[in-house]
């Protein structure tokens, strides 16, 4: 073996070793995400992250705050002996400008086919632990007969309409 070949062999061996070591490290979680066992919780104000979970193209909010909980039942961790379906739970508050909120309100008040007012949720379902006191107070003062909806494009979520704000819940992604 020539001296050059020997050095190349050492460099390749070191590279393979380092690559294998990097694969053994756990993935680094984003700063807004915590992990407890197989439960991942993200609390964020990043509209782009929320847009990966729900469609925000038609009614783009001016600001958001949300909490997404993902329960990984894939069996990739050592806790589960039998893998099953994973679950996702989203709680969000979407803040809209007057024009966008007006368009959303019109669709919810005069829903197209497939969008209906519902009564299966209560105010308590939207009193998220992480909501600001102002939003909680507005929720508690709101009229439940008018604010509990599912509307396109959020027809797989449940909405509670407030003043230029929408509280949203969605389960099982």
Average of pLDDT: 80
Overall strand count: 8
Note the main sheet: 8 strands, antiparallel
**Portion in helices:** 25-40%
Q: How large, in whole angstroms, is the Cα Rg? A: 23 Å
| Helix count, DSSP H or I runs of 4 or more residues | 5
Low-confidence stretches: 21-25
Any idea what the shape is?
A: elongated
Spatial order of the strands forming the largest sheet: 1-2-3-4-8-7-6-5
Distance between the termini: 57 Å
Q: Give the class from helix and strand content and strand pairing.
A: alpha+beta
Domain count, please report it: 1
Strand percentage:
25-35%
N-to-C series of helices and strands: HEEHEEHEHHEEE
What does this structure look like?
It is a single chain. With 173 residues, this protein is an alpha+beta fold. The chain has one domain (27-171). The chain has 5 helices and 8 strands; from the N terminus they run H-E-E-H-E-E-H-E-H-H-E-E-E. It has helices at residues 3-24, 47-51, 98-109, 133-141, 144-147, and strands spanning 33-36, 39-44, 63-71, 87-95, 116-117, 148-150, 158-161, 165-171. An 8-stranded antiparallel sheet has the order 1-2-3-4-8-7-6-5. A hairpin with a 3-residue loop joins strand 7 and strand 8.
Topology, please?
Blueprint: H1 3-24, E1 33-36, E2 39-44, H2 47-51, E3 63-71, E4 87-95, H3 98-109, E5 116-117, H4 133-141, H5 144-147, E6 148-150, E7 158-161, E8 165-171
Antiparallel strand pairs: 1-2, 2-3, 3-4, 4-8, 5-6, 6-7, 7-8
Overview features:
8-stranded antiparallel sheet, 25% strand, 173 residues, 8 strands, alpha+beta
């Amino acid at each position: 073996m020539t001296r050059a070949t020997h050095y190349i062999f050492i460099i390749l061996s070191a590279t393979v070793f380092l690559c294998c070591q990097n694969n053994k490290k756990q993935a680094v979680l984003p700063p807004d995400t915590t992990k407890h066992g197989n439960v991942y919780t993200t609390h964020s104000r990043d509209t782009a992250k929320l847009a990966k979970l729900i469609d925000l193209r038609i009614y783009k909010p001016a600001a958001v705050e949300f909490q997404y909980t993902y329960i990984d039942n894939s069996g990739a961790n050592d806790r589960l002996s039998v893998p099953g379906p994973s679950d996702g739970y989203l709680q969000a508050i979407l803040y809209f400008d007057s024009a966008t909120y007006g368009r959303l309100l019109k669709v919810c008040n005069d829903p197209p086919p497939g969008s209906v007012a519902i009564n299966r949720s209560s105010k308590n379902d939207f009193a998220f632990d992480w909501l600001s006191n102002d939003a909680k107070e507005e929720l508690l003062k709101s009229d439940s007969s008018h604010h509990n909806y599912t509307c396109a494009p959020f027809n797989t979520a449940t909405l509670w309409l407030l003043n230029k704000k929408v509280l949203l819940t969605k389960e099982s992604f």
